[in-house]
TrEMBL record:
<keyword id="KW-0067">ATP-binding</keyword>
<dbReference type="Pfam" id="PF03029">
    <property type="entry name" value="ATP_bind_1"/>
</dbReference>
<dbReference type="GO" id="GO:0005524">
    <property type="term" value="F:ATP binding"/>
</dbReference>
<comment type="similarity">
    <text>Belongs to the GPN-loop GTPase family.</text>
</comment>
<protein>
    <submittedName>
        <fullName>ATP-binding protein</fullName>
    </submittedName>
</protein>
<keyword id="KW-0547">Nucleotide-binding</keyword>
<dbReference type="GO" id="GO:0016787">
    <property type="term" value="F:hydrolase activity"/>
</dbReference>
<keyword id="KW-0342">GTP-binding</keyword>
<dbReference type="GO" id="GO:0005525">
    <property type="term" value="F:GTP binding"/>
</dbReference>
<dbReference type="InterPro" id="IPR052705">
    <property type="entry name" value="Gliding_Motility_GTPase"/>
</dbReference>
<keyword id="KW-0378">Hydrolase</keyword>
<dbReference type="InterPro" id="IPR027417">
    <property type="entry name" value="P-loop_NTPase"/>
</dbReference>
<dbReference type="InterPro" id="IPR004130">
    <property type="entry name" value="Gpn"/>
</dbReference>
Length: 197
């Protein structure tokens, strides 16, 4: 496992201007909204490996607290977002189920950081995800996906429940909303830039 690349190591040219390509993971537990977030923000048609859930999956995937979930990511999601003249994000969404965790090592390779989506009603499901991100040495920000009908949670209580470092960014977002998703990713990128200075 090598160190994460700095922002200057993956420069490329587009439209005559030098831009930096930044690989970002969008991670989280099963059914937290990773595919939705990438779909809401990608400037290209996102690549999605969503498949219909079968009855066999019901015995493997915990559907408690998940309503109306009929599809699931079986490989990855991919999207692209230009955030400035200099920085382009390549977004890689990981599957949330434990049985796909072996794919994370390859997906984490070359990533600069991760946006960890969290459901405040299923915080315990986020612990293994955060453990994996820390295992791969990636800096991350927490994006609390605000679901309809769920009250907003106190940030301090969330930090304590997730055992976060004081400087780990925590934002609330709606993965369905382009501006909200962009704000969450912008928070992560600013944090990563501060960490590389």
């Amino acid at each position: 496992m090598g160190s994460a690349p700095s922002l200057g190591e993956r420069d490329y040219v587009r439209g005559g201007a030098t831009q930096t390509a930044v690989k970002i993971l969008v991670v989280g537990h099963f059914a937290v909204g990773k595919t939705t977030l990438i779909g809401s923000i990608s400037e290209i048609e996102p690549l999605s490996t969503e498949e219909t859930m079968t009855q066999a999956a019901e015995s493997v995937d915990d559907l408690k607290g998940v309503q109306g979930k009929t599809t699931t990511t079986v490989a990855m999601d991919f999207g692209r977002l230009t955030i400035s003249d200099r920085i382009v994000l390549y977004l890689f969404g990981t599957p949330g189920q434990q049985r796909f965790v072996q794919m994370w090592e390859d997906m984490a390779r070359g990533a600069l950081g991760a946006l960890v989506l969290v459901d405040p009603e299923r915080l315990a499901d986020s612990f293994p995800v955060i453990d994996l991100i820390e295992h791969y040495g990636l800096d991350y920000a927490i994006a609390v996906n605000h679901f309809d009908g769920v009250p907003l949670r106190d940030e301090r209580a969330l930090r304590e429940a997730l055992d976060l470092l004081d400087d780990t960014p925590v934002v609330t977002c709606d993965a369905r909303d382009e501006k909200s998703s962009a704000a969450a990713l912008t928070t992560l990128v600013r944090y990563l830039l501060d960490r590389t200075r």
